[in-house]
Amino acid sequence: MDEDTRAAGRRALTPSARRLIMRFGDRRAVVSIACILGLVLTLFGTAADSHATARLAQSASVGNGIIDVKAQFAAVGDGVTDDTVALQGAIDAATQANQVLMLPPGTYLTSGITITRPITIIGASPTLTTLRAVPGTKAVLTLGDGTVLPSGMEGFTIANIGIDGAGTAGYGIWIRQYGGIRARFEHLLIQNCLGDPGIGIGNEDHAYSMLMSDLTVKNNRIGLRLVRRVQESKIIGSQIYGNIEHQVVIGDGQTQVTKVSIVASQVEPTTNGASGAALLVNGVSNLYLSSVYSEAKTGATGPALEIVPGMTSYIVADGVHMVGNQVAPYAIRLPADNTNVNLTLVNPIMNGYLNNPPVENLSGPTKRVVWIGTQNQPAMMSVRGGLVVGENGGRLWGNYVGTVEYDPPALAPGATVTTTVAVPGAMKGDMALAGFSAIRDGVYLSAVVSSKDTITVLFENKSAQTIDLPSGTLKVSTWNYQ
Length: 482
Description:
single chain, mainly beta, 42% strand, disordered N terminus, 482 residues, 10-stranded parallel β-sheet, 20-stranded mixed β-sheet
């Protein structure tokens, strides 16, 4: 017996898997039988002593809470035989008897299986236990049947399993209406869903309190797509990368998504030519990003984060790392004409490609973006897009600055001279200030926005003698209030 076989047995019941089993119910026998099955795998390998394994599985079906899909439902798991009937039969039996379904190591071909009642399904590991689609499969695994407000559908757990769309499946996991209430997805590998629509995990409508942890989602058209009344759901410690279009899509602009968190995860377009933003947002009330890493690899054509026009989006990004590339030079792209964007960036590490800024299209009063801290100045806060100070304060929309080197001519008593400074963003009617590094007593400065993007500065000698100022730096600033 080789070391790989022993390792497979040791991984068959990881601490997280044991926690999932115990969470399913209070029956100590569930944990006991699970440990015995793990011991069999460890000592004898996945193929040895099938009679002992069968006897354990048969005893497990009588009150101890475990069903073995191979021993009791004749699933083959050889990557050649279609195991759909065996898998569906085991799922139906486990849900009816309120038992845990164990999938031993193997590759189980299926045209699609459906879960309509609460169940816990646990495999050996995402690389040892695989559900693989046969050609023409709509979804490898479907949660729910699309029924409106079904009863008793809360509480799915799927763990330690690989899901392979084999290049043709439309979904790895398809969450139908109300099928994702309190669903738990832990330690899964979902890949190769390239059919129509080509989504690793996607929902239809109404999915509440979902937890997705330790996922690897890659080589699909879209990694995760959460839309239409997804609420209070979390993605934690996951790798979502190398998908062809978007890595994660949240919201479709039709119905609000609320309280979604992505924490300590990689959301990254590592595939050359990835055609969309890594994270696409359209209508999310309270999206929280923390320690999310997204660097657009060479050839990816979308930014790390894009907020599209549509419903109101409130987003807090805390400690994110987002980088653009030569094709997608901005880390974040905002819509040009959307007043419904509310984005707060807290201590981000963000870079555009070469000299490009990290955020595209920030100018104008339609943006509400707050920066708290930067990579090099953690104590600084700058606000672009509207800040109200005081109970009756006006809204500050923008502060724009310009700097030039200037050598004024000699000024006789009472004489004046003017010069202009280009300040993109300045508008007539804005407040303007000026300062000169070589100023002397007797010379006074005033500034006015004389035309769009231009500030005119007046030097006036109010003394009784001629003053010849040396060359210096002329700095101007304009503030826009509403």
